[in-house]
Amino acid sequence: MSARTNETPENVRLIGGEMLLWSDMSAVAGVTEWQGAALELIRRLLPAGGRVLLVGPHPQPLVDEVVANAAAAAVLLRSYPDACELGERHPGLAVFCGRLEALDVEEPYDLVLALDGLLRTHSAEAPASAWKESLAALAGLVAPGGRLALGVRNDLGVDRFLEARPADREGGDDQWAPHGFDPSYPSGPEALDRGIESAGLTMRRSYAVYPDRQAPRSLLSREALAHDLPDALAFTLSSRQDERTLVADPLRLTRLVFRHRLGERLAPMWLAVATRPAATPEKPEKPEKPEETEESAGPGASEELPLGLVEEGALLYELVPAGVRRLPDGGEHPIPAGRVVEEILVEACAHEDVRTVRELLTALAAWLEEGGEVSAATDSLVYDGERFAAIGPPTGLPGPIDPQVALCRILRRFAVRLLAAGHHHPWPWPLEDDQLTLTLCAMAGRECDQRDLDRARKLEAELGLPAEPAEHAPTYRDLLRARDRLSEQLTAAMARISRLETKLSYRERELVRARAKLRRTQRRATAYRRTLGYRLSRRLARPRKVARRVIRLLSG
User: Fold this and answer.
1) Do the Cβ atoms of 58 and 33 come closer than 8 Å?
2) Is residue 145 classed as helix, strand or coil in its secondary structure?
């Protein structure tokens, strides 16, 4: 700690339960990196001329956004070093340091943001309150007609099935008590709704957060998840971080979650937006319009919340009934229809359907030659049976690209992913990705050579794409699948060796018996040649042979 530890900024107020030597910002678990999607939602929630309170640790860009746009803002943190640092960063910000239950304010707030949840609003100096009690204390800080944005981590989210580490103990120093023993903690969307209602609030909209609880990039409302998501949208809602040890492929598992319409129930995290009903006057002037008590209450309450927000790199899209709309001022366009090309190829390879692979790759090569997106890949293209469409935005090209080199790059990337995942394919002889790439190029009717492969590698580097998938650590399930496949091959080879050894042993026994029989026959023949009868017959037969030869010569 620095020498200024004892110098508390004037805008920092200690309320009790503060942790003097602890920092949530430097903990192992870290702070949830809310970025574009969360910032856009907060901009729509910020009340004009209202008061805003942030509860718990939040990333600095989000805090800066709130402080810059709110008329009055305050922050509640349990960490004393974090509170001092934030107080020095924003001198006009009111910073409360301590636990949530100890916060007592004179006037409630129009907007309360607790995107990190309630688990880090307790202090190690006192027993942690139940989640339901903490929510009641948090709801008491919301003014009538105000709003609450609360993040809740799902104990049975899809990311819990991906992590190899135990879900209840991630190894962070802030986890001094095991999680999962609180019966009031939400076990699903329905339990979250009941908790919000029991706290005196009304749920306005519940979002499922994807792809990860540490770095969320997408907010999908309950209404959006009630229908089947297009593959072009669902395919992007999964992530893989190299530093994590995974049990299964997050892409395949997330795709199954959406395919079975479990996107909300198995979301890594929920983000609930709730309101406190406005105080009903004793003599309402217009009782015939009860809907105005909630919708028109509070600053900015009439603004429509988005159906969903999806980040795609540096771009942000909003889900609309007709498709997606690029923010801030882009036009609406439908989501491309069709299946992901990589899934079609993997399925065809598993069935050894060479005809489907040939037809699809031929169509892909023709699409590239006709001006298709050369920076795309099989995992970022959808195909509806007639045309291809890129899922993500196009990547800046370094210059004119040869379609054959682009095809080689796309097929090489697919070959690497296919071999790295251990999927079955009908070409067992290629042992390396380059050999399989050349085979796939031949299937597409394009003859590629080693020079094209080198140019494809250079193009991939110029496009600024991530490292090759082969450099990713394989998941446990991939390793088990590869082990089982090698075990089956080894078992088949051992069985064949056993059959050949049995046949060889049988042939060796037959050979031994034949040699023994030959030796017995040779001994019998030797004994027979030594008999008197054999020798006499040989001598008597000799004149006859001479007479025959003389007759042949004379008659000849």
Assistant:
1) no
2) strand
Spatial distance between the Cα atoms of 411 and 284, rounded to a whole number of angstroms: 69
Burial of 25 (0-12, 13-18, 19+ CB in 10 A): middle
How far, in Å, CA of 452 to CA of 459, rounded? 10
Q: What would the two tokens of residue 182 be?
A: 């609180």
Per-residue pLDDT, 512: 94
pLDDT the model gives residue 472: 53
What is the per-residue DSSP string for 507-524? HHHHHHHHHHHHHHHHHH
Beta bridge partners of 95: 12, 75
CA atoms of 221 and 306, how far apart (whole Å): 8
Instruction: Tell me the two tokens of residue 178.
Output: 């095991």
Which of 169-178, 382-391, 510-519: highest mean pLDDT?
A: 510-519
Look at residues 75, 100, 91, 137 and name the one whose alpha carbon lies nearest to residue 18.
100
Position with higher pLDDT, 281 vs 370: 370
**Which tens digit of pLDDT belongs to each residue from 243-280?**
456 767 777 788 888 888 888 999 999 999 999 998 76
**Tokens encoding 130:** 């139940």
Residue given tokens 């790295």 in the structure block: 420
Residue 398, pLDDT > 70, answer no
User: What SS3 string covers 414-474?
Assistant: HHHHHHHHCCCCCCCCCCCHHHHHHHHHHHCCCCCCHHHHHHHHHHHHHCCCCCCHHHCCC
- Taking the C-alpha atoms of residue 90 and residue 1, their distance in angstroms, rounded to an integer, is 20
**What's the rounded Cα separation, in Å, for the pair 413 and 396?**
18
Mean pLDDT value across residues 293-316: 65
